[in-house]
Fold these 4 entries.
Entry 1:
Amino acid sequence: MTKTAAKARTAASRRPQANPRLFHAARARAIKQEICAVGRKLWLRHYVDGNGGNISCRIGPNEVLCTPTMLSKYDLTPAGLCLVDLDGNQLAGAGRRTSEILLHLEIYKAAPEVKAVVHCHPPHATAHSIARSVPDYLALPEFEVFIGHVPIAPYATPGTSEFARTVVPFVKHHNTALLANHGIVTWADTATHAEWYAEVLETYCWTMMLARQLGLPLTYFNALDVEGLMEIKHRYGLPDHRLAPPAERTCTCGPAIAPNAPAALPAPGQLSGPEFALLVQSVAEAVLEKLRGR
Ligand SMILES: [Zn+2]
């Protein structure tokens, strides 16, 4: 048995036994409705086609509601959804669970605070995933606050465990990732919010493509602008790898905090005022450095 498989088996043995009855619990009812509403939004916005895309919500320590395979996201019904445990075993539901659930489950295992995951193929963001280019950032406030820098998870065959694990390094300090030559995945506290991140990323990618077509120089945020946006982000408690402690910053695709920043910092939500000011200053310096290099 490989080290990873042994670790997964130990973690699985420590989990509470899954409860299939949660599928019919009153609190699951509202979440099922929300998943169906999110599915229709994705389809109406052209973020999924055919039977593509999938949505899930964690409703217990070892229970996750998810969409079935081979069904358009426009046609989802609460009764047709599935309930699985964190190992992907189906516990309840008429349809067969999506094979992509493994990707969602890796995210839940890596970040217990995450309660919903959305995977879809919005055209402009997916174009970036094919070009293996992260969307340029520091240009629009909403994108910077809700998402920030987007990592690209390497390509692996969809539906496999290998594919599912590609996103793990990014889960803690991001809420959105491009999946190379495939699409995007977003995670949040609710399915509605995870769908918002898909909208914010897709609209941003589209807008930046249009802005470039104007053939004029683009203007990016200065350090003071970034400072204001980072304060909003901090207030909302949104993850950003630029605010992560260096040891946890697995994503190397964005501007790093300046080398003179403290070596070990607490999580963003636990920073004192001066610590946060110092972080903001470090980020601003790194950003300015990047802009000078444009
Ligand atoms: Zn897909």
Entry 2:
Amino acid sequence: MRALTAKTLLLPILSGVLLLSPPIAFGDSPEFPTERSDLSPKDRKRVAGVTRPTQDFSKAENFETMQGGAATTKALVNGDAFSHFSTNLTFAEEETFKLGNALFRKLWVSSPSSTQASDGLGPLFNARACQSCHLKDGRGHPPEGTADNTSMFLRLGRPARTEQEQEMLARHEALNFPDLTYGKQLQELAVPGLASEGRMTISYEEIPVTLGDGDVISLRKPTYSVRDLGYGPLEPDVTLSPRVAPPMIGMGMIEAIHEADILAKADPDDRDGDGISGKAALVRDHRTRQIKLGRFGYKAENASVRDQSASAFVGDIGISNPDAPFDHGDCTSAQADCLARPTGVQERLGETEAPDPVLELVTFYSENLAVPARRDPADATVLKGKQLFYQSGCTSCHTPKFVTRRDADNKAHAFQLIWPHSDFLLHDMGEGLADGQQVGVASGREWRTQPLWGIGLTETVNEHTFFLHDGRARNLTEAILWHGGEAQAARDAFASLGRDDRAALIAFLESL
Ligand code: HEC
Ligand code: HEC
């Protein structure tokens, strides 16, 4: 992987799009900086030195424990490990964080109700609060037994059908197209008296996999469908993309990574021939409509925490807000009953169900959840596992570290050495993980590299170890064995390790 100039970066991205669609004018092509604009040449050199992957596995690196930079929390490791605010917030910011926290946990109710400031739920929804899915600010899980599906849902989308729709995709004006009746996602819940859209069902098939040393691991392959469809059939070309709520930590730091640092790792046509490409997600900022680098969501479809949060309010809870002013959430014109329901807009409070400053506060909260400190980066087994992680090629996508931009909007996020272990690029992960759903630049086989910080505390916080976008992996070993496509060689390297070495690599992941 190598740094690219503006031309070599743009051409492959654009030609990739052009192959699929008729030539169109690129009036507003993104002009991303190819070099960090926030640093002097001397600082650029320093940063390059600090972020270069280590080759010394005899001891922990400087500052490795503080994986979220100065925002890292060293609080006691317990079930609240993901719920602390960044330790470098000012006192006034702590207060803002707490107000945001209350709104993140707030249970919205259906209209009309006596608690008017909480009105507006739905009419169709997946959950009543952000926290219902991002459990303890951590991750959700697939339903088990008779438990409900709350912290996981199906996104609905279909590909372009016409030239005009293809142009919209190429211009990043649309990410894909919603189902005519059910909209952009399947809402399993509805306000009293309204039909819900249906229920996600999952069936698993066990697939045995033999590792290099003869050990056999069973992977469960999921198949998704919808039963009890409340409003007739889905359109035939609509695909189902299952997603479990991801953990909420370190998000402001991810926002503060300079574009040039992410783009430097992009290699969409694999010109360096290492089998790993890595594509930048280009999306529109919801408010300015400018083309930005997508960083959030499993397919990097949102450029900012604010955009992701605004979409969550309206799509997941059915709460309109200034950035997504749809009082009836994701109901479509084919759902007349839904559109006829009262909304929760209170004119004395504002024009939407969550008027300013609700979205700002929730965004601030989401941007400032601290990353927990590494527990034992200097442990001999952890260091051994770290070496194997690097040698197996995991770092080709799970980029260990970045230094955030010096000119970040929030000083707490500025110029921090952080260790997310992600390149925030899209990769083809093979047929096994494919959902078949295009989301903007991301194909039906592509996913954003998932950051790994905090992953070792999943069980501590959420009392389960389900990983990957749909929680199919029941532990870290299964998560690695599902890697395919561009990650096939890394997966095979892991599978060929002996039992002790595999355990060491897992011990490294558990120390993150
Ligand atoms: C019904 C479950 C659900 C609810 C409710 C929910 N989320 Fe999420 N959240 C998800 C899922 C699933 C994703 C991954 C989305 C994707 O891939 O597009 C996600 C992703 C995110 C991300 C990006 C995380 C990342 O790693 O990129 C943020 C930030 C976020 N949610 C904030 C919120 C906020 C704020 C609220 C409340 C307004 C909220 N969410 C409500 C399920 C939920
Ligand atoms: C080609 C890029 C690539 C390589 C190489 C790669 N990964 Fe990943 N990794 C990803 C992507 C993309 C995801 C998200 C996949 C999904 O959710 O379906 C992921 C997810 C994971 C997860 C689950 C994260 C979570 O929060 O659920 C773990 C653990 C992981 N990778 C470990 C590894 C290890 C260990 C290696 C080396 C043996 C490795 N990866 C190599 C791209 C890569």
Entry 3:
Amino acid sequence: MVLLSGKLGFVLAYTGLVQAWSSFTVPHTPGRDDTPALLAALPKFVANSTILFKEGITYNILTPITFPVLNNVEVVVEGNLTYPSDIPTIQAIVGSSTFSGSWFTFTGGNNVTLRGSTNDKWGWVDGHGQAWWDAQQQINRPHGWAFSKINNGVIRDMKIWKPIGWNFATSGSNNLHAFNNKIVAVSDTGSFPFNTRHISPSDTSPYLRNSYCEGGHGLSIGSLGKGGSVADVQNVLFTVGSCQKNTLYGARFKSWTGGNGLARNITWKNIAFDGVPFPIYVTQNYWDQGVGPKPNTTSANNTHIQDFLFQSFVGVVKEFVSETVPAYFVPGATGKEVAIFDLYPDTAVNVVAKDILATTETGSPVAVMCNSTTISTDVGFKCWNGPFIRTRAGI
Ligand SMILES: *[C@@H]1O[C@H](CO)[C@@H](O)[C@H](O)[C@H]1NC(C)=O
Ligand SMILES: *[C@@H]1O[C@H](CO)[C@@H](O)[C@H](O)[C@H]1NC(C)=O
Ligand SMILES: *[C@@H]1O[C@H](CO)[C@@H](O)[C@H](O)[C@H]1NC(C)=O
Ligand SMILES: *[C@@H]1O[C@H](CO)[C@@H](O)[C@H](O)[C@H]1NC(C)=O
Ligand SMILES: *[C@@H]1O[C@H](CO)[C@@H](O)[C@H](O)[C@H]1NC(C)=O
Ligand SMILES: *[C@@H]1O[C@H](CO)[C@@H](O)[C@H](O)[C@H]1NC(C)=O
Ligand SMILES: *[C@@H]1O[C@H](CO)[C@@H](O)[C@H](O)[C@H]1NC(C)=O
């Protein structure tokens, strides 16, 4: 008897341990918004849980999702997720005072994984961006995923299809590993007009600060390593159709001065651009120019970068004038640069721009900025502040 109750006690304790991990499959109702049911269930799955969007289901994410602070949680996107397909519905939500800023928001926590699917047919987050691109619609565009204030975060195998706006923001997150993510933003209407219509400063300036690629092609990685935090980003592929006018940067990478970690194997491929002041821009020396002079780095560290490839960029560089682009964006730029590599000595390896075919609006020679003391590998063009001259790695 005594022995039996002892055994029973052990069995109960063991069961308790097993049940400490919870799994939740997000329910789906055809034709309805699937967000409310998820939000209602979330408070029970904020720790030691898996939250699964199941393969075989296309979930309607018709209203934004904000996750509470999570600990030891994995959010798995094995089904397809779809945004509303009409523009006004989204604009009304984005324009409302309660909108968090992103369609999917993580508000913080520890050990949080956002995982997509390796099955090509499923796990796509479809932003229905085509209509936005075709309309060149830039008003009240939502950001995609805000993965904020997470310590020990992972973003892997995520696949974004035709995003409307910016894709992943990781502000305030530390020790982040992002790898095997895909962003496909290829237009099928060829809504890329290679026209050379001049845009006056007043047309462009309102958009310049925050737009990366018109039509919402998010090609940006960064800002990594703020305040010395550690970020590790690997194996990212951007395949994109086009970057157009009113876009400040084409493909961009930035890490904060004094950061830590590694960004490796990142490819930006097949990009046509028109009227873009900085088609290819890498900086490992980022700081917030709006708040003062470059801080004196106390750390000998910096975010290391390795195996970056910018391949097949074709288009027209916008020759900016100081009224449209504040000079502090890129000190020393002449406005004719197709590529700017602002690297930190001894921390950049194998950063290459290949198959670059660019002209400027006025036909003056295309230029580059690059400091040859900061990198010893061939970057695909002569590494200097001067005209673009292709080298072996650039062919
Ligand atoms: C989650 O699991 C850890 C052990 O893995 C445990 O220490 C913690 O208390 C659990 N949290 C909750 C809210 O159950
Ligand atoms: C972190 O979360 C994962 C699930 O994503 C879990 O398997 C793992 O045990 C967690 N790690 C710790 C230290 O709790
Ligand atoms: C999932 O979404 C992607 C992108 O929209 C689409 O290509 C794919 O066919 C969808 N999968 C299924 C099974 O519908
Ligand atoms: C680089 O990343 C791509 C995905 O963008 C992946 O297919 C490839 O295997 C990675 N290569 C290495 C050497 O990790
Ligand atoms: C950086 O150091 C220089 C020289 O020591 C000093 O003049 C300058 O004020 C410092 N800047 C900041 C932002 O602390
Ligand atoms: C420099 O980076 C290394 C490796 O990432 C890390 O172990 C070390 O703590 C960092 N040092 C500082 C001062 O941040
Ligand atoms: C090139 O980089 C080195 C090392 O960071 C620096 O000392 C030098 O001033 C830079 N040259 C130019 C022209 O910016």
Entry 4:
Amino acid sequence: MSTSNVVPNDLNAFWMPFTANRQFKKTPRMFVAAKDMHYTTSDGRQVLDGTAGLWCCNAGHARPKIVEAIAKQAAELDYAPAFQMGHPKAFELANRIVDIAPKGLDHVLFTNSGSESVETALKLALAYHKIRGEGSRTRLIGRERAYHGVNFGGISVGGIVTNRKMFGTLLAGVDHMPHTHNLAKNAFSKGVPEYGTELADELERIVTLHDASTIAAVIVEPVAGSTGVLIPPPGYLKRLREITKKHGILLIFDEVITGYGRLGTPFGADYFDVVPDIMVTAKGLTNGVIPMGAVIVSAEIHDAFMNGPEHVIEFFHGYTYSGNPIASAAGLATLETYKEEGLLTRGAELAPKFEAALHSLKGLPHVIDIRNIGLVGAIELEPIAGQPTKRAFSAFLKAFEQGVLIRTTGDIIALSPPLIVSEIQIDQIVSTLAGILKTLE
Ligand SMILES: Cc1ncc(COP(=O)(O)O)c(C=O)c1O
């Protein structure tokens, strides 16, 4: 295809998200097309997608069923009001999500992003307790090194200092558990690392400090993705489930990355065999193609709201685009694609190959840890003294030049290829990285 006239002349107006804008605009990296496992750059090069876009294009790119569904829906019913009106596809999609969700999670609230799904879940938790006469439960517990999007609730329960420090005092009444990442004890673990299960008991300490009667919910990512693939120790999430249940605290899993097949199971909840009260999802729900999130909740929570006069709104929350028809059509086509191609479990088949390939990088310069679970992996690099993030960022730039898209966070390289990736493509990603690691400053 011709790509000669697709790069805008002036890049100034668009203030890009989570991007080093000045660096980017000096040497832009533009994608102009994508198909299956590859992007096409504006200078006509093919780049292998090692990150499923931003952990979201789980079925790869430009998948025919999804493309057709979006086009058809746009022509048939482009928009329907989300409040006090409905359209069939939103209901159908909610049912299909419930079909693949862990047993017991059977109601869906739609949003437009992971961040909005997080806010929705936190508000739901607060309202749930209030509606049941436990309005003193207002405290929210997150975790260090957690990423729950960029809105105020999410950055409050999140644990990334750069995302928090500019924005004032955030939500009141939030506490954090420690993260579980332990390089000293767990470096180069394959799959779930051995040490750190007892860190779940920090929740008991927090409960003792504040009293259970003040705590509404605990939110965790089953595997923290954005801060560099932090995998929980064995039994850690089960222990959180026991403690939350014992104290009447809701457990929220933020499955924005772990949902829809990333770990080789439909959700992280399935992988770790722990059912939360609320599951936050987005990204892979529509294969990243149209913004959409889904918050999946237990009947117990849903039913608690279904009281009072029938003409009265039960939960004062929602978005203009909640369950948008085109997003719903994209979601349905995405779930069909996952089903037809067995993608929700393909990660489990590929995990041993992915693991072996990643761990072959052990011993290369700067590599201080390699970790993996399902089709997510991370290679942690020793930072350049006094210049954190620089080494990994330069790996990212080199990989892009050499035709592979990776993602970096701090000095950690994260990989999460689309679930359609082939073994040969896994080798290509890893051998490109091997070459780069040998030449990095
Ligand atoms: C665990 C988690 N929660 C929430 C979000 C926010 O999602 P979004 O960028 O769609 O708002 C992300 C995004 O990476 C995420 O990884």
